[in-house]
C-alpha cells in the first residue's frame, strides 16, 4: 500500500483552489482511493460540489454555538464516492481571528478524527496566501507534508505563489509542484512553467479555462461527476494521478520581486 | 454571544500559571514564558521565591505582528548559557498561541542539552487544570514522568475540577470575597469545646505547598490540647504521604513531617499533598469506622473537598486561604469559616512550617487560660 498523501493547496484568493481540490478529490475517488477533503475557506466551497450543492456545518460553526464536538460524525460528512468532507469555517467578516480559527479547528479535528488515518489522500484546501501563523496550522500541527501552489499566468497570482514559496521554506515544507489554473492570458503556460522551473519545481498541470467547470460548480457538482467525459475532466484525472504518483518534492527558492516582474513582462 | 450561559464573572486562576506551577513541581529550573513581558507577572515573581527562575521573551507589538520565533530561540540559548539548567520549561501565552507560534520548532532550533518541557497553553480555559494537564503531557513525552504517574495526575485533576465546580470558587458565576469569621471568636469556641471534654478531629487536607501554613493549625491545636490536658481527645488526619506525587510535592510532605518532630502524632495519613480532591473519601471511611462519636472537626486547607455526610453531627471549623471560599463553605453548613490571608506568598520557598494567624490566636488564648 502506498503511504498516505497529505497535501495542501495554496494560492491567491479566488484563483480556483477549491474547484481544483474538489475535482482532484473526485478523480481520486473514481480511481478507488479513500479521500478526505478539508476545506479551510469560510465559503465552504471545497466540499459543496462533492455534496450535490449541500452545505455542511463547519467545525467553527459548531464551536461558535458552544457545541461539544466529540465524534467524527459531527463534522465529517460523506460526499461523492464516499469522499469524506470537512469544512473548517471561519468568523464573521471583520470580527475575531480567522488564523486562530484554523488552529483551533485543526487541533479539534486531529483529536476526534479516527478515519483520517485510513485515508490514501487528504487534501487541505487552505485559504489564500500564507498570511499568518494560523494559515499554516495544518502543516505546523503535522497534518500536511506536501504542498502544491496554484496560480495563473497573471502577475498577482504569481506574486502570491512566490510569497507562498517563501512561507513554505520558512516552515521547512516541500513543494510538490505548481498547478496552473488558466485565465487565458497570453504566454500563460510558458510563464508559469518558467516560474515553476526557476523556483526549483515543475508545472504539474495546466488546467484550461472552460465554462463547463463554472457550470458544474453552479449546479453543485464536480466536473468529474457531472461532465466526466469532457477533456477538462481528463485534465483533472491526469493531475490526480500525478499527485498520487508524485515523489519528488523540493525546497522552493522564491524569486526576487524584480525577477518575477521580468518573468511576466 | 450566548448571554444566558454566562458562567464566569470574575477572573479565574490562569492555566498559564497552572502550567508554571506544574513545571516547578517537576523540578524545572528555568521556565520561559513566551509572550508579553507583563504576562503572569505576579505569579512569575512568586515562583521565583520558590526557587524556579521564570524569564520572558518579552514580545512587544512588533513581536505580536511579526512573530517571536527568533526571540524564543535566542532566549533558550541564553538560558542555557546563563543558568546551565538541568531541566527547562517553555510556556505559551495568549498572545503567542493566538498568532500561532510553534514552541517545538524553536526548541529544535535552539538544540540544547537539557530536556525542554514545552507547554502550548493560553489562559482561555474555564478549567485552569488544563495548564497542568498540558505540562504533564509534555513531561510524559520527554520521559520525565511515566504513564502511571500521568494517569494518576489526570485523575486528580478531574477530581479537583469537580470539587471546585460543585463546592468551590468555580461553583457560582460571582462570589463575593470575604475575610470569614473573626479568629479570636472561633479560637475561643475551640478552647471552650476542648475544656468541656469534647472530642475533635483535626484534618489537614491541603494543596501542595500551602500545607506549610495549614499544618501549623494541627501543631497549634495539639499544643493547646496538651496544655489543657486533653490531648487524647484529639486525633490528627493529614494528607502527608511522602511516597505520592511529583518530586517537589513529596519533598514538601517530608519537610512538614520532619518539622512536626515527635510533638505531633499524625494518626491517619489520608493521601499525598496532591490528593486533596480525593482525600475526602478516605476521611469519610475513617470517620465511619473509627471516629463516629466525635463532636467537632477542624479542617484546614481544602475543607470543601470533604463530603458533608462524613462530618454529620460535628461542629465544623474550617480554614481556607481563598476569600471566595467562605460563602460556599457556609452554604455547605460549615459553622465557622476562617481565611488565612496571603497564605500562598508566605509558603513559597520555605521548607519549614509557617505560623498561621489562627494557630497564633489559639496559642495566645490558651496562654491566657
In words, what does this structure look like?
The complex is a heterodimer of chains A (265) and B (369). Chain A is an alpha/beta fold and 265 residues long. Chain A has one domain (3-262): 3-Layer(aba) Sandwich (Rossmann fold), CATH 3.40.50. Chain A is built from 10 helices and 8 strands. In chain A, strands 3-4-2-5-1-6-7-8 form an 8-stranded mixed sheet, with helices on both faces. In chain A, helix 1 packs across helix 9 (231-245) and helix 5 runs antiparallel to helix 10. Chain B folds into 2 domains: 13-144, Nitrogenase molybdenum iron protein domain (Rossmann fold, 3-Layer(aba) Sandwich); 181-366, 3-Layer(aba) Sandwich (Rossmann fold), CATH 3.40.50. In chain B, the strands form 2 sheets. Chain B has a 6-stranded parallel sheet, with helices on both faces. A 4-stranded parallel sheet of chain B has the order 2-1-3-4, sandwiched between helices. The longest helix of chain B has 21 residues, at 147-167. The termini of chain B are far apart. The A-B interface holds A 66, 97, 99-100, 103, 132-134, 136-137, 140, 171 and B 2, 5, 67, 97-102, 105. Chain B: One of its GO terms (molecular function) is oxidoreductase activity.
Write the layout of secondary structure elements.
The complex is a heterodimer of chains A (265) and B (369).
Chain A lengths: L4 E7 L5 H14 L4 E5 L19 H6 L12 E2 L5 E4 L10 H15 L8 E5 L11 H4 L5 E6 L3 H16 L3 E8 L6 H11 L4 E5 L3 H9 L3 H4 L4 H15 L11 H8 L1
Parallel strand pairs in A: 1-5, 1-6, 2-4, 2-5, 6-7, 7-8
Antiparallel strand pairs in A: 3-4
Helix pairs in contact in A: 1-9, 5-10
Chain B lengths: L14 H11 L4 E5 L6 H9 L3 E4 L4 H6 L2 H15 L4 E5 L1 H5 L4 H8 L5 E4 L9 H13 L5 H21 L15 H13 L4 E6 L5 H17 L6 E5 L8 H14 L7 E2 L9 H12 L5 E6 L13 E6 L5 H7 L3 E4 L3 H5 L9 H11 L2
Parallel strand pairs in B: 1-2, 1-3, 3-4, 5-6, 5-8, 6-7, 8-9, 9-10
Helix pairs in contact in B: 1-7, 4-6, 7-8, 9-15, 10-11, 10-15
Written as H for each helix and E for each strand, in order along the chain, the element string of chain B is HEHEHHEHHEHHHEHEHEHEEHEHH
Morphology of chain B:
elongated
User: What is the CATH topology of chain A?
Assistant: Rossmann fold
- Helix count of chain A? 10
Largest sheet of chain B: 6 strands, parallel
User: What percentage of amino acids of chain B are in beta strands?
Assistant: 5-15%
Strand order of the largest sheet of chain B: 7-6-5-8-9-10
Strand count of chain A: 8
Instruction: Please identify, by name, the CATH architecture of chain A.
Output: 3-Layer(aba) Sandwich
Largest sheet of chain A, in brief, is:
8 strands, mixed
Structural class of chain B: alpha/beta
CATH class bucket of the largest domain in chain B: Alpha Beta
Q: Class of chain A, according to the CATH hierarchy?
A: Alpha Beta
What portion of residues of chain A is helical? Answer: 25-40%
Into how many domains do the coordinates of chain B divide? 2
Shape label of chain A: globular
Q: What is the overall number of helices of chain B?
A: 15
C-alpha-based Rg of chain A, rounded: 17 Å
Superfamily (CATH H level) name of chain A: P-loop containing nucleotide triphosphate hydrolases
